[in-house]
């Protein structure tokens, strides 16, 4: 079983993915942010350095899917999110060709069983980005977040993968740990032909 999270930077993907992985006792595949050699430049100018960012994360994604194919795994970010970031970047013809090759390799992998999209307002995302105090993120404009959300929505509407949309304002897995059970129940309902839904939690 493979579940992939999708959402813009600052939406809370890693927080919710980790909580759900802990609840299930599954493997968590995290984006290698600390090891990313191009991330600082990407946040300085997301459209200019989008190719390097997308290529790095796509190669890491392909590697993890192959390495963890025999484990139940939750990815705090997945292929659809990588494609959305890349779609907003300015690329040369050579970079376009390179990404096409990487995406062909990623598309040939087994599809995720479920994509969980975290829907969170742009102003709240910017507040969260500011609160976590990462210097390299501080200049990301609201327009980029809005464009990224629109790109992700378009791709989600056209994917043949199973999608669960979570309005994240309704959940707080840190302040209200029982919210994880509610999310797990929603996941189980989506995957009921493949994975038994846990007992419905109390409201």
Strand content: 5-15%
Strand line-up in the sheet with most strands: 2-3-1-4-5
**Number of DSSP strands?**
5
Largest sheet: 5 strands, parallel
Q: How confident overall, as mean pLDDT? A: 88
The rounded distance between the terminal residues' Cα atoms is: 27 Å
User: Shape, please?
Assistant: globular
- Helix and strand content put the structural class at alpha/beta
Which regions have little confidence, pLDDT < 50, spanning 5+ residues?
none
Helix content: 40-55%
Rg over CA atoms, rounded to whole Å, is 17 Å
Number of DSSP helical runs: 8
What is the string of helix and strand elements?
Answer: EHEHHEHHEHHEH
Verbal overview:
The chain is of the alpha/beta class and 203 residues long. It is built from 8 helices and 5 strands, in the order E-H-E-H-H-E-H-H-E-H-H-E-H. The chain has a 5-stranded parallel sheet with strand order 2-3-1-4-5, with helices on both faces.
What descriptors fit this protein?
8 helices, 203 residues, 5-stranded parallel beta sheet, 11% strand, alpha/beta, 49% helix
Provide a compact summary of the structure:
This protein is α/β, with parallel strands linked by helices and 203 residues long. The chain contains 8 helices and 5 strands; from the N terminus they run βαβααβααβααβα.
Write the topology of this structure.
Elements: E1 2-6, H1 13-24, E2 27-29, H2 39-44, H3 50-67, E3 73-75, H4 79-87, H5 93-107, E4 114-119, H6 122-131, H7 142-158, E5 163-167, H8 179-190
Parallel strand pairs: 1-3, 1-4, 2-3, 4-5
